[in-house]
Amino acid sequence: MARFPMADAADDIADAEQLVLDELSEAVRISKQTLVNWADRGLIEASLDWGISADNEELRLIHISPSSLDFLRSFAEEYRSDTVSRTEARRLLRLIDRNQVQRLIRQGSIKAKKVKGETRVSVGSVEDYLMELEAPGD
Hints:
alpha+beta; Multidrug-efflux Transporter Regulator, Chain: A, Domain 2; 2 domains; three-stranded antiparallel beta sheet; 46% helix; disordered N terminus
């Protein structure tokens, strides 16, 4: 799995692109929760902000450096195709109860497969599940 580029002091955050977090999440197919976590931990050079839409609704904005945006676009597909242990899936889902992951697998909400006798969870299915939870109610 590729590693995140550490935020480079030479990157000029003044050149950062301002994007709506929902739109970036959809474009790269990574949940808002994960993108916010990566920004908070400094794994991508980005900052979060709030804005107002033309319809006078609050929007979550992300200011992301061009190099981080390029990396994110290229890394997203590889990240989604990876598999993780059920323990790591619990961390991604922010679940404490280990039985909840097993229930989500049985329900088909997230996908798992056996790798060398160990159950591995698809990161893409975890991200899809998180994005489904984040979607506004219809």
